[in-house]
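Side project, low priority. Logging it here so it doesn't get lost.
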Amino acid sequence: MKHGKKALKLAAGLLSLVLAAGLAGCAGAGDEAGREEGAGQLQTSGAEAGDLLRRASALDVFGEENGEEQSQESSPESDVPAQRDSEAAEEVSGQIPPATVKERPQGWTLKLASEDWGLSFGEPGAVPVGNATAQDLAWYDAYYVGEESEKVIYLTFDCGYENGNTQPILDALKKHQAPATFFVVGHFLETAPDMARRMVEDGHTVGNHTYHHPDMSAISDMEAFQKEMDDVAGLFREVTGAELSPFYRPPQGKCNTRNLEMAQELGYYTIFWSLAHVDWITDSQPGHDESIEKLTNRIHPGAVVLLHNTSSTNGEILDELLTKWEEMGYSFRPLAELVSG
């Protein structure tokens, strides 16, 4: 079967969805000492999950590495081909074409340094080193950073549940006319449909963070993997009347090559990040000055910034933070521009 037909078939599959009851939390991603790495698993169900999610967020652990750069297999020297069959030019999910399986170099397979997405930081303002190079990830339609030549920021938010901080975040984004991508789970859509609708009304992109927020690296079966994705897309369509965009963020940054392959086969772009801070523990929020300093010192051209909608600090500082980034010469772009490049 040609790649184009396969892409269309998979994209259509995103629209034929089965609703499933379930709850989700959104685990964190940030950094303690120049190394950012997701850890821990959060998955539950039942009417008590809202409270459990709040308490369980404190269980997320962020590993601190020894600062040594992780070794990786050398990349194929050729650029990633921009392969799009004419049939795959059919656009879905807010005019963003789905990802398509690429013909990777024979005998070459992506080797991730770790199944927990991580970053090693160097000088302030420099692009951090990830678990794989941007060039290698692009063969699987996966991204963690944009071009280093432009002062562009891609804002993303992980949404596990609603606790009153999404509105000030949306207000700040609207004030600055800054587009963002919100990665939602099933629990958020179940309990905060009004916030999901506002995201759409404000012109933001909404992506897939799975329905139950499991450790997706433990899932190698396509049927199970696809159900986590399809259930979010189905509920989002039911709640908003719009189609979910083809962007996927692995819960906790846990991912392997098989996961990247399955996401790509389903038409999704996998989106990691190149900047975050420890903002997901609601009972132990980072301070105002600490957060501003870290997020301005480590901002870099092409940054994919990960923040959490549950953070009161983010709700408090976002207007000021966006202003400071603008004063540094940065502009904000949607993820569609990252993947189209």
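Brief comment: Confidence is low (pLDDT under 50) at residues 1-93.
Revisit when time allows.
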